[in-house]
Write a structure and sequence with these properties.
With 466 residues, this protein is an alpha+beta fold. Helices cover 21% and strands 34% of the residues. The strands form 7 sheets. Strands 20, 21, 22, 24, 25, 26 and 27 form a 7-stranded antiparallel beta sheet that branches. It has a 5-stranded mixed β-barrel with strand order 8-11-9-10-12. Strands 14-16-18-19 form a 4-stranded mixed beta sheet.
Length: 466
């Protein structure tokens, strides 16, 4: 059995801490049993490892999430990279062809797909074996896990099971599915509960061969390399609409334990064991209020009840918890440049951005590179950079030449110059970019690891000596 964990989406309902670069599953606002902060993706990966599932798991993600996943889970985590975000059906199709073409998974093997940020008890992972058994015993096209509702929610989709006729002795641990209902209104939700409907938590399984046949029927390549080349031609559509609701036979395995979608500030703060993060000052009258502050200035809470305040360089949210999910309806500029990003080597914060009257863009960042980590060997065609080292020690490479660097050093990087840095101690520096267009695409990566960079440096030295 193989697992595909879906890591997509921007998590806009957790703005301003989440955005296209740092989605909700990467926010370190919950804590493990030792009281250490961890993200949702770290929590799921830890639980999978405890059940010895992590060796069978692959994470389907976009390029923008690669660094974050490697930073939080390690650089050996198996990733299947989407060339572009195209919703869940294309992502799962690409992952399935990868398992088939690159890993050699047989068509009869069961594949389970689930979100990377499911908030569940550790015991939940035992349900995956039941899901596989239900699929194989029922000979269904798909098997799903449905969560027993605790209230008539209008935020979740529902799975409506078929009522068993009297005398039916089929196994009790799964049921055939009659229909689906997406995010009903309050009256519909209450009626669904009377039908013993289950919350759809987005976890389902299929035989790999079944999905490959679906792709063939739609004229979609089943070869990973071919699908990768034609990926942008795929229609952006969810797996639920394109496959699940069209399947001839679907079964569901009920789950009676704890499950929650931490997709809003209201639900997320219910699982936080602290009421404040960062520089926060409280008075005694504040109740059921959470303040998350990533800024260097204090936030003072006086007499607030049932509120959430979240502040970052991307913005400040002040909302009642009950209404916090409505942030997606507000006229926020969702495409603005992220001001904070976590990378495989550390993180950076944007300090200032402007365009001069002459049309030159100027961007100032503060970067933190962890000890023994490095930035890639790269060059830029449309910008120059100036680095001022603030703290730490490391090695700097410029056009195949290495120098030691430390506090007070100023490094100039002209347009087209090859450069990289490695921290021997945690390294902090200020970077000023100047150019006609300051975009992520203006990065030509020549080498990623420090060993590869040193090979290029040695080759450059040999050419220089000749």
């Amino acid at each position: 059995m193989k697992l595909i964990l879906l890591s997509g989406g921007a998590g806009k309902r957790l703005w301003p801490l989440s955005n296209d670069a740092r989605s909700k599953q990467f926010l370190k606002l919950i804590h493990n049993a030792h009281g250490e902060p961890e993200s949702m993706v770290q929590r799921v990966w830890r639980q999978l490892a405890a059940y010895q599932w992590s060796n069978e798991a692959y994470i389907s993600t976009s390029r923008s999430h690669m660094d974050l996943l490697q930073s939080q889970l390690g650089e050996d985590v198996p990733l299947i990279i989407e060339p572009d975000k195209r919703d869940t059906f294309p992502a799962i199709a690409l992952a399935a062809t990868y398992l088939h073409s690159c890993v050699g998974v047989e068509p009869d093997e069961v594949v389970i797909v689930m979100p990377v940020d499911s908030y569940v008890e550790t015991s939940f992972w035992g349900k995956l074996n039941e899901l596989e058994s239900a699929l194989l015993q029922s000979e269904a096209d798909l098997a799903l896990i449905g969560v027993a509702p605790t209230y008539a929610s209008t935020k979740y989709g529902y799975i409506v099971p078929k009522q068993k006729p009297e005398g039916n002795k089929s196994p009790a641990f799964y049921h055939q599915v009659a229909s689906f209902k997406e995010k009903p209104d309050q009256n519909q939700a209450e009626a669904l509960l009377k039908k013993q409907a289950l919350w759809n938590c987005g976890i389902f399984s299929f035989r790999l061969g079944y999905l490959l046949d679906v792709l063939k029927s739609k004229g979609i390549p089943t070869s990973y390399d071919q699908l990768l080349q034609n990926y942008l031609a795929l229609q952006p559509i969810s797996f639920d609409y394109e496959v699940v609701e069209k399947a001839k036979k679907v079964v569901v395995v009920p789950y009676q334990g704890y499950w929650k979608d931490l997709g809003t500030w209201n639900t997320l703060t219910e699982e936080m064991n602290v009421h404040s993060v960062g520089r926060v000052v409280w008075d005694e009258e504040s109740s059921n209020t959470h303040v998350i502050n990533e800024l260097d200035i204090p936030i003072v809470s006086i007499g607030l009840s049932d509120m959430v305040i979240a502040a970052s360089l991307d913005g400040i949210l002040i909302a009642s918890k009950e209404k916090s999910h409505r942030i997606k309806e507000m006229p926020v500029d969702w495409k603005q440049r992220p001001m904070v990003e976590e990378k495989r080597w550390g993180y950076y914060r944007v300090l200032h951005y402007r365009t001069t009257e002459e049309g030159t863009e100027v961007l100032t960042k503060a970067l933190h590179v962890y000890a023994n980590k490095n930035l890639s060997y790269q060059l830029h065609q449309q910008r120059s950079e100036v680095w001022t080292i603030v703290a730490g020690e490391g090695e700097f490479v410029l056009n195949d030449r290495i120098i030691r660097i430390g506090p007070g050093d100023v490094l100039e990087i002209p347009v087209g110059a090859k450069h990289a840095v490695r921290a021997s101690k945690d390294l902090e520096f200020i970077e000023v970019q100047l150019g006609s267009k300051l975009i992520e695409e203006d990065i030509v990566r020549l080498a990623m690891t420090w060993e590869e960079i040193m090979e290029q440096v040695r080759a450059g030295d040999e050419e220089h000596d000749q």
